[in-house]
Fold this sequence. Notes:
Helices cover 40% and strands 25% of the residues. The chain has helices at residues 5-35, 40-55, 93-101, 119-128, 164-210, 258-274, 281-295, 370-373, 384-394, 400-413, and strands at residues 57-66, 71-78, 87-89, 105-107, 135-142, 145-155, 221-226, 234-242, 245-253, 302-310, 315-321, 327-330, 335-337, 356-359, 363-368, 422-428.
Amino acid sequence: xxxxxxKKEEExxxxxxxxxNVDLEIIMKMNQxxxxxxxxxxxxxxxxxxxxxxxxxxAANIFxxxxxxxxxxxxxxLHQEYLDEYQLDLKDGVMxxxxxQRKCIRVGDVRxxxxxxxxxxxxxxxxxxxxxFSVLCSPLIAANECIGVIHCxxxxxxxxxxEEEDRQLLETLSAPAAFAIRNAKMAKEMIEKNKIQxxxxxxxxxxxxxxxxNKKEDFPIAGINIPAKVVSGDFYNFSDLGDGxxxxxxxxxxxxxxxxxxxxxxxxxxxxxxxxxxxxxxxxLTQLNNEICETISRGxxxxxxxxxxxxxxxxxxxxxAGHEPPIIFSKDGNFSNYNESGPPLGxxxxxxxxxxxxxxxxxSMYIFTDGITEIKNPKGEMxxxxxxxxxxxxxxxxxxxxxxxxxxxxxxxxGHVQKDDLTIVVIDSKN
Length: 431
């Protein structure tokens, strides 16, 4: 009666080996297909097609973990397309358990095996008219990080129930799928990052175009702006108004980053537009403040100093909205400040600003943003107003255009670390 038992065992062993070879072939095929594309959607669809075919499942989904909202998010589905972008809590049901235990979970029969199934399955069935009989759920683990799960429903057999060998197979297939999805996800994030970076660079180029260009010929005003990043929250403008008069403006937006740069772009555009028809420094600040107050975000503001240099009368007309007091350096070597100021722009609507006229002869006035005086050396000491004055004194005999570049270069070359935008505008009185 035991005559054929050895032959039966031999046949079973052969079947197991054959099955293992098929599974190995499938894994190799998956790796080959994954290697040909870093497109996330292609990778997800490839993973689902291969797995659903090998597992012989009725439907399959991939849920990735959205770290921002702490939820599972369905980003790919076969035969359950209505689940696209469906979200579940990270602790829900089989998916939550698979991630927690970091292993493939099998629910043989959802109506009997209540230990592994959660109520949301039945609730979801009611919403989608889909009947769940059996579930396989495997975590997607790559580089020791769980990025989501592969979720299979109903085996396409008469019983519609998954067996233990199906669980083992899905667990095996999940490894190459996880690495492929992770790589594709990283590639997508890199592309998006590069796209954003390119857009930021465009914003930076636009901002640079809004700054006045230094003149090669003898001109009493020059400026320089060195952004801490690609975009800047600083702005300056100067122009020849005719009849020996020159207009100028310097501004600094609170904060850093894209938000600040966009506000600066708005402020500079408003200034360029309004200054063409308004030669009153105080009235111009009042108009700018009213416009900015209408749209500015809470907690943000703009400091600004604008003025007119009259070379014939040898005087400056100045109006300030909370800006750093400019430094006036006379040819006899003395320093002084213009300290009159109103509140920054964007703080309070309908603020009335004032303007003052001061004599300006045989002198230079340096208008700057706080990035200059607050820059720190390796010891953590700020440059401060006196430190800035030392550089002004050191390079006083250089042409204005060259002078500003040398001052900035010297500050940075002496170990000061730039963390904010650096902007200086100088007005030299004409003889």
